[in-house]
Amino acid sequence: MLGAVETRSVSPVFVGRAEELGTLHDALVRACEGEPQALLIGGEAGVGKTRLVEEFAAAARHHGAVVALGGCVEIGADGLPFAPFSTALRALRRELPGELAAAAAGQEEELARLLPELGESRAGRHDEDGMARLFELTARLLERVAAEHTVVLALEDLHWADASTRHLLSYLFRTLRTGRLVVLATYRSDDIHRRHPLRPLLAELDRLRTIRRLELARFNRDEVCRQVAGILAHDPEPEQVDAIFERSDGNAFFVEELAVAAHEGCRTGLTDSLRDLLLVRVEGMPEPAQQIARIVAEGGSTVEYRLLAAVARLAEDDLIEALRAAVNASILAPAPGGDGYRFRHSLVREAVSDDLLPGERSRLNRRYAEALETDPALVPADQRATRLASYWYHAHDAAKALPAVLEASVEARRRHAYSEQLRLLERAMELWDAAPDAVRRTLRPVDYAEVYPPCGCAPATTALRYLDLLAEAAVAGRLCGERERALKITKRALRLLDEEGTGDAHRAAWFWIQRSRLVQGLARSDGWKEIATAQDLVRGLPPSEVHAEVLATAAHWSMLHEPGPDALTAAERAVEYARMVGADDIESNARLTLGGLMVDAGQIDTGLGHMYDVRDEVVARGLAAIVGRSHVNLPSVLEGVGRSEEAVGILREGLRLTGAMGLRDAEAWIWSNLAESLISLGRWDEAADAAGNAQRRGQTAGPHGSGANCLAFLALARGQVPEAARHLAQGRAAYGPHDPMPQHDLPISWLTIALAAAEGRLTDARAELARTLESGFPLGTQRYAWPLLLQAATAEADARGLPAARDGREQVLDGIFAAVKRLTTHAPVWLAHERWVRAELHRAEGRSTPDTWSEVVTAFEPLGRPYDLARVRYRLAESLLSGGGEDERDRATELLRLAHTVARHLGAGPLADAATTLGRRARLPLTPATEPAPVPADPAEALGLTSRERDVLRLVAAGHTNRRIAQELFISPKTASVHVSNILGKLGVSGRGEAAAVAHRLGLFPAEMLMPGPAG
């Protein structure tokens, strides 16, 4: 646009910063080796942060890195949502278009919220995971692009950053783990006062050991001398250096300004304030250039040429001449990309802006707004709404500002920039009374308020109400984490409804549901009081979306806190009402809740059918939030009825889907559920890894607590009692006391009893049991209740005969017996547990028999739970040895060997030691003798396999499923499953793959017999 212009105020010599540049180069080297690097560069305004970044960027490019720069854009006092990331991603797209497209493949609709060039962002209901999902996908995008190329992502002027940018940067700093990536950000340290919004982020990042923080100091006298020499192109006089050093105090920018002023004969800067020095240089330009500087100062960080021309209203030749003068004077500089202009340094801009008169400032903002309304293409599309809102607001024209601010809030919501949406909505509330009635009557909720469900009005013809703004702001506050502000907004809305006296029960109920979510999020209470209030408000009213949401919320709360008939009824009505009003998302969530409650009530197949249907539907529709929930809840319910293998398959698919969709917290829940199912299946090392992943990936307390519980169980089962205590403390701390749920509290109580028993604290174990029995076991909590009762009964049986256990023993056993009678056993796994608990109670009373334990073993053999099976086999062997003959000894030997083998495989030290001790006392060999008897011709016979089990093992080794085995052998799939479980037990292995390996190693079947047929 302009030809070559002369500027002498930037030193051609890079002065000092050797240590800082060395740190940056070290970070680049580490990144090139695949270790992501994060750096923060702070320093006062003008100290040289940008020059350091430019020098490093040039060196990084020289070494083959791709550099993507993005700056936080300031418009008045408003930051553009995600502006530095959008700018940097555009630069990355220009440099690596193919790589970025491949990295974004499949998630273009979500990532378009940051980079609109990728496509149209998905519309739909916003949820708590929306922003986190966008952040996770952004992290994945950067990691994928940086897998093959070293990438430097540099974000400048973080002190101007909007809240959403700050949140995203924090997320990246905390979660980036792979890729050849350097992420650095700069900020003005002198601007970070006590209430500055960047201050909490800096404090948070200081606690992360993975972030290096550089603080740029001012130049010393020698460095100032070198800088002045570079600017003047000759060595300055010592007196001149002394004067400049004393006046600038080593600030690099002021050194430049003073050196140029001295060179041009301007002595003012050496005596007046530095701000006056900057203004004197501006006032030294021709009047048209000064006018352009004033216009650019009020337009934002960068002003596009065409917009500047429209606002300046000068002839093009005059405009270019004025711009040339401003650039030659080093006041303005062409913006990166060459499409506009900005001040060479923000300090100059701030000085010019501060010098504007109030009327002059509002007039310039009006001219900007009018130009942008006349031609919206003057600025990038993703900035248009926010900038227009800012211009009209600072023009002090409420009639124009209110619609523009509302439009900007919609754009912020679309981009998941909920903090900016909240700020804009609060600005709209501020403007509401000042805007004319005629303007307010033209506004429609259908255009500006999506969160408010229809309550009998027609959004397309009903005017937007102040109450609608409060509703939208309450949800924006909840989604961006500003729950206190959101709670105050809901209180204000409910007070307004009371003052209006219109009896608008739908809207009041909606706000009470919001309050329930907020108080739970703030850990104030469990939220039921608010839900109950909402239920009372809608009771007896015709079906509506609000009514359906209230019922669905109540049913989901009850499922977690007080499952039972009332919860089931609420879920059924929620599904019915949601269908009647076409609220598909509410219906899907309610059907998941209904399915889980039906399974708890014993309607297993019907309930699971509902849950499978919802899962398939939401995956097909791409409803991310419900996809996450369905892959958490369905496997959890399957595990709850003992179908662990089936649960694992769905959980693996859930990991794939949640990973692709960026559902980080749902992914963490899936990892914790996977750990639980793998424990049941005897895959303990995998389970420990899964539990660790749950804790690493989780962003909320739930996955952390569940993962800790799984690790505590594994530690106890492996005899690592101090480790178990540590994990149990973590689990208890994660859940906290504010929102008790059976699914949290009962496992904690179970582990507390187990830990107390392991440490010989029977009194503490009994106290925990008493507290639990007093609270009772709500319907549907049998999956947690049976293990707890089993642990308590086992502790009593193990303590039988100890003098300290006699007092209170009878009452404890009676309490366990009473609880057993009330618990349901509608799934085979819990029927097996009921028999196990009763057997332990008999053992505690000294009347344990082989027949009792034989029934327990028979119940567990088909369930595919090797650790449980090994434990009850040990108990049966113990019972057989207590008074049996030679046949019983032989059977006990086999049982002990099987239990011992499984215990050693799992690393279950206490069980293995117990089996060894029992075998030694009974003089039973748990391993083959040194000189074994002749091996039978058929090794399968030596393993104790029946003829039918031999046939089944052959098909297992060939890779067949139970269904295919059943077809081959003309038996039912259930019978095939029973045979497979028996085989695993006899071989002492935990899975089908290990069984196949044993068969191959022993050469049980010729190769031709193992050729797999069609997959079953």
Question: Mind explaining what this structure looks like?
Answer:
By secondary structure, this protein is mostly helical. It is 66% helix and 4% strand. It has 50 helices and ten strands. The strands form three sheets. It has a five-stranded parallel β-sheet, sandwiched between helices. Strands 8-10-9 form a three-stranded antiparallel β-sheet. Strands 3-4 form a two-stranded antiparallel ribbon. Helix 7 links the parallel strand 5 (151-156) and strand 6. Helix 4 (97-104) crosses helix 6 (130-145), helix 29 (584-600) runs parallel beside helix 31 and helix 41 (828-844) runs antiparallel to helix 42. The longest helix has 21 residues, at 886-906. The radius of gyration is 36 Å and the shape is elongated. The two termini are 70 Å apart.
